[in-house]
Structure formats: structure tokens, C-alpha cells
Amino acid sequence: MAFDAGSITFKTSDLANLYVNGTGLAAGGGAMSSEDELQKFRSGSVAVIDATLTAILDDVKTLDNRIVNFQNAITARAPAGTEDKPYDAAMMKREFMEEVFALLLKRSDFRANSPTYNVNTGDVTEDLLGDGLRNLSDKTFDDMRGYLVEGGKRIFNSYSSLIDAIFTEGNKMANNPTDPATGLAVSTNITTTIPDTDIGGVIYNRVTSERIPGASDPDDTKNFNYYLIQKNSTPVVSGKTNVEGYAVNRTDNTVSTTRPVVDTQLTFGGNLVTTNYLRVNKNLTAITGEVPQPRLSRQMSPMWFLYYWNEARVKVLRGQLNFKEAVTGEIRDDLAKAQKAYSDLEKQAGRTRSQSADGKTMNPDLSYETATMDFFEATNTKAGATLYDNAGADDLQNFNTWGSSRSTLKTYIDAKSTHSQDAMLDYQTTLNRYNNAFEVMSKLQEKVDGLVKSQLRNVA
């Protein structure tokens, strides 16, 4: 079952509620609830929404969808991120939170302490960031909260919790299949029939084994535990359940097993126990002092055993593939924003000259960076660095410094383009593994179909 929150669909009601209601702030109070503040952040707060506010609200929508994409992605075990490649959970959260903060600063109803100043860029009057906010990577989350009014802090904290919850939900795709925690997991896909054997009043007629974890030689019989299986014991039921938020198809199912209720009781070593498995030595002799107990098992034929685990593999690969896809989307987003900033740079640089008309004054003109450039630098520059030439510690540049900034921004775009190619290759590798898992499943289905038809012909 999917849960809608406006135009966004979530896998669970908890995520949908967190998105809509938020978490609020423990201290400070405030006139509005987190839900009201989030609604204002996403929908505006004035009767007439101008073009600037419309653009900000569109950016909020885009960011929300990018974040929610990760509810279907496995971020666990991703390579450690860097500021050049912020593609692990911690670094991506940092990137998302910097963007949330930047969007809050663009709204006068959420920012405090006047962290922006107003300039005319030549076409429009824009709010630019103050010098202390040139690079958000240099700020802690607590630093960022200090620039916000109470409502802004509520929104900031709500997004922090939402991002954590979404990453946690995505990582659940790796927990497949899920088995009951009770008992010992014994893979009984292959069992051997033995003559009926009476031990303590219980009849056993099959034997299975499991390799001891960490055993040095998996082929040596001393590295195995052996179990007798009670005659006529009910096999474990293997089944598939639909996962919330997915279409009903094979890739979106959770494979699981359910241990049956065992009614047989026997006294062993002075203890009354309920059991259908008994641990024995390699000679199938009961181990002195061993207390039988219920054992989790997967009593499947070799064919169904392979199908079972291959289906589990498909689901895990689906989560990994979603992660690779989301990463490529993040890089494309960075590139799109960089291209917009570059376009503004060229336009503003065109307002300056290398020298005055009489040739006596070098770099006679100055022009401002735009808000697009300013906020892009703040959210995409590595800690301790600047993306543009800011020798004057301001947002004004002349002909010469525009050239230096142009070179730096082009280098950034070229690096991101390379990252995009690498990410696509990584995505293709995972996609090939995903397709291979489906091919294996298809062959298993063909084999089963052939066996069934062959048996039907023999019966006829």
C-alpha cells in the first residue's frame, strides 16, 4: 500500500506523516506548528506569489522528489563519500541539508539576522548572501540554525529527520529475505532419507546438515553440524508478500519463510521440549546432553531453493540499482545548476571591459554576481575554498577576475561531467547483474515448466 502526501508517494505511512507533519523543535515554542511551517515552505505564504517565489517553490518541489527517491535505494555499504563525490548517505544528507538551508535563506519569513543583502545586477534586484555564508560547507548544522527564525529551525530539523528516515527505509531492501529470529537457520534444501530411527520416542527419517560458520575447510565433515528431521514433520512454508509502495510484480516481493507449529514433545536429558529437529554427530548418533529445540528450516527442493535465493538477489540488486540511478540524477542536477551559474557569469562578465576607452585604466568596470551564482557557490564549493575569484571578499568582479572565475567554474563542470560518465558505467555494471539475475530466474522457470510437462506426458 502506498501513502500519498500531496504529489509525492511514500512507501510507509510513517514517512508520509513525517513529510507532512515534521518534527518541530524541542525548545523555543513558536506560533505555528511544524506542519504549518512546512506547508508555508512548500506552498508560499502570501496571497499573490510573484515569479521569484514561484521559482523558489519549484526548487523545493524538485529537492523533495530527489530526497524521496532514496526510499527505494540501498545506501548502505556505498563507498565513503568525499566533497568531490558526495555519494554516500552522510555526504548526501549534508548536500541536501545545505540546499534546504539555502532555500530557507531565500525567504525573508524564515531567515534571521539579515544574512543577505540587496543589490541590482543590471537586470533585476536580487538578494545575495553575506560574506559569512559564501561557503556553506564551512558551517555546522547548528551554525545554520542560528541564521533562522523559529519556523525555519522547525523546517530544518524536520528535513534532517526525514532524510534519515528515508535512508533507513531504503536500506531495508537489503534485508531480504527476512526470517523469524527464533531457532537456528538450517538450510534443508537437500536432505537424505534414512531408515526410521526412534530416539526418545520420536521417529526421525531424514538428515540434513549445515556448515559451521567460519569453518576452515567447507568440504571436511568435521566442519558440519548434522540434524535428524522428524518423520512427517510439517515443512516450513515459503511465500512472497507484496512490499508497500511497489507495483505487484516479482521484483517487488519480499521472500520469507514461516516456521510451522510443532506439536511433538519428548523428554530428553530430563527436559520436556518441543522439537522436530535433533542435532547428531556425523554417525547420526544423538549427542549426549544435546537438548532438542525448534529449528528454523527451509525444506525446499534444490530447484525452489535456487529460485528462492535468486529472487532475493533480484530485490537487493533492485535497491542497489535505484541507488546508482539516484546518484546519476544528483550529478545531473549539479551540472544543470552549474550551467545556469555559468550562463549568468557570462552575462555579467559581458558588462565589464579590460580597459577604458582611452586605454589608460585597466579593468574600469565592476559587475555583480547573480543570486543564482551566489547560492550555487555556497552549496557546491568544498570546505575552506571559494568557487569564484573573491579576492575582494565581495560579490563584485572586474574583467580580469571574471576570467579567473570562468576558468574555475569550467573546471568544476568538466569534473562533474567525468563523474557523470563514471556513474553511468557503474550503473550499467549493476544493471547487467540485475538483468543476469532475471535471466537465471527465467531459465529456472523454463526448467520447471519442462519437468512438469514431461511428468504429465508420462502420466498420460
TrEMBL record:
<feature type="coiled-coil region">
    <location>
        <begin position="328"/>
        <end position="355"/>
    </location>
</feature>
<keyword id="KW-0175">Coiled coil</keyword>
<protein>
    <submittedName>
        <fullName>Uncharacterized protein</fullName>
    </submittedName>
</protein>
